[in-house]
Amino acid sequence: MIDDTVIDEGRLRAALAQVAEAEPVSASAMARLLDALEGAEAEAPALPTHRRLPAGTPARPHRRRVAVAVASIVIVTGSLMAALGGHATATNGGATTLAVGPHGPSSSARSAFGIEAPAGAQTPTTVATPAAGSAAAPAAGSAAAPAAGSAAAPAAGSAAAPAASDAVPSPADSTRVVKNGQVDLVVRHGRVEAVVAEISLLSAAQGGYVSSTSTSLGGGAPSGTVVVEIPEAQFELVVDQVRALGRVEELSTSGRDVTSQYVDLQAQITAAQQAEQRYLTILGQATSIGDILAVQQQIDSIDTQLQQLQGQQQLLDQQTTYGTLSVSVAESSKVVVVAAPSGWSRAWHNAVNGFAAGAEALVSASGLVAFVGLCLLALVAGAWLVWRRARPRVV
Amino acid sequence: MDDRTAWLADAYPSAYRTAFLILRNRADAEEAVQDAFLRAWRFRDTQRQGAAPNGWLYRVVVNACCSKLRCPARRWETLADHHAFAVVRDRALPPDVLAGDADRARRVVAALDALPESLRIPVILRYYAGLTEQEISLAIGRRPGTVKSRLHEARRRMARDDTVRALVAQGVD
Description:
The complex is a heterodimer of chains A (395) and B (173). Chain A is α/β, with parallel strands linked by helices and 395 residues long. Chain A has helices at 9-21, 27-43, 59-100, 103-112, 119-122, 137-148, 160-167, 192-205, 235-243, 259-285, 289-321, 343-390; strands at residues 126-127, 177-187, 209-216, 223-231, 247-257, 322-331. Helix content of chain A is 60%, strand content 13%. Chain A has a 6-stranded mixed β-sheet. In chain A, helix 3 (59-100) packs antiparallel against helix 12 (343-390) and helix 10 packs antiparallel against helix 11 (289-321). The longest helix of chain A has 48 residues, at 343-390. With 173 residues, chain B is an all-alpha fold. The chains are: A alpha/beta (395), B mainly alpha (173). At the A-B interface, helix 1 and helix 2 of A face helix 1, helix 2, helix 3, helix 5 and helix 6 of B.
């Protein structure tokens, strides 16, 4: 409980008067003051009215307060400017990034909304197909493909070599090209397996065969990869047929001319065969065991070399007879909108994009706004403190 | 008698005694009042129009006193002189004052001396110098409401002293 008893004003006044009035006022002190006043008047008359110094307030502390206030304002303003400068630089950097960015966000946004650009517009297609010799096509296609079979690649070996040699045209009148192709297909939902089977059938129909196949139907995005070997003459035809099975995301074909390499191999084989023939003749004329053994050793060596060369030739034959086409089949995750979006759809997408852009801008600007707000708050708080301190208070 | 002399004769005794009550030291009080009057005279034309002249003069005086109180070199002297002030306070009462009144006055001023400066100075200005709350507000640089609450707080604290309360009660009765 607060005690509200207070001392009586009259008593207080009387007591103070009693004590104070008992203190004598020194006449000499008054006289000294009078003299000092006269002296001060003579030295420095009363200050003019326009120099209104605050009465009784020492000048120096007041100046110090003003200096502190000015210094704090300068410091806060300077830091604000510096921070704003830094942010401006950062914004420039961000703009540079954004200038690069639109391809990413816009394409991702499009795919998110199921809008997919036409294949030709977005995916650069590199088709580098050297003109294949027309003379080489018919014989190789019709003769070699059935012999090789549709299930597996032709077995390489010395026994198969003559057959392959017969199947391919002679190197003198043809150009040997190794063809490769890569197609990325996007097909409708649930069509991956069917498209992979169709590609296998297409290659078989044109005398080709399936080299490898893999299909993944689990998970969120079913996909498959099939690698087919297609007779060189039918390569372009099959590529066209495969392209028609879905939407092409990427297509690339390449051809490597190996004619000189093939001719070189052929020459080496001929030379080796001739050498072997000569050694066989010498072997027939040899009489001593030592001669026979020495010649037989040479014949074995040449035979080994000949087999290696013929193996290389067979491989080259295979590569140039059949083009390798690798097809990746993926399922479109969203409904493919082939037709141009309607006005309502476009408006909706624009609205969503605009909202997202606005939200992004708001979030990115919030840092600056918060910083400026904090600085202003600090400035106001500092000014208020300075004002409070600068307010003249005696006790 | 010129203006200066008249002003001095009119204002000096009260100002000096106020300073004496604040500083509790004769030499300091004379010095402070001299400084204050010189300053007040020099800046007599700079006081704000309409401001209470009493409040303005006492502001200068209180400032000068507070400068003395805050001066570290003089603080020890002031403390040392505090005993002398008590002697003066006790001795100074005129013989014609009744013994009961004298004792009561001593007790009251002793209770006043126990207060902090922020409460003591407004009390001296109000109940000795006779300044209004508005003038005290100008003199100490605080709002009139603050002055009012400080005066009340000072009187309440002084009344906490049982002896003072008994004496005052006795006096009132």
